[in-house]
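Hey, resending since the last one bounced:
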Amino acid sequence: QASLPEKIPELTGITDEMLTDEPFFFSKLNEILTVIMNRKLIAWNADFDRERMTRELIAAGVGSAVLSSIEWIDAMELYSHSQGRSRKWTKLIVAKEEMGIGESQEHRSTADCLDTLAVLRAAAREEGDLLSAAEEEAE
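The structure tokens again:
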């Protein structure tokens, strides 16, 4: 199994040892494609996730039709818009603190998904329809 890039443990707390018994991306490719094709994916800092996911899918031989069927929505951008910020960059942990949402979780996929959902729900209670408001401003 390949080692993680040097910065990953520092940024996420995830180590090579933690991944020893985890499946490779390619072994779960069909399951992943079933979930993401023709869907809207919401991610905190979607550019980061889109870049990595696209790289992995291309390496797996997935064609451009599948890649173009996936619509990415950047939750960080929606949150920043709801807070009236001109720049989109806000760490998820900071957004949670600003919205008064519980204690921070470790940087893990399930916890990050739940935290992103909690932040968007809290922002939507203040702002209303976050996606429509952001799309209207972009036009």
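The chain is about 55% helix and 5% strand.

Sorry for the duplicate.
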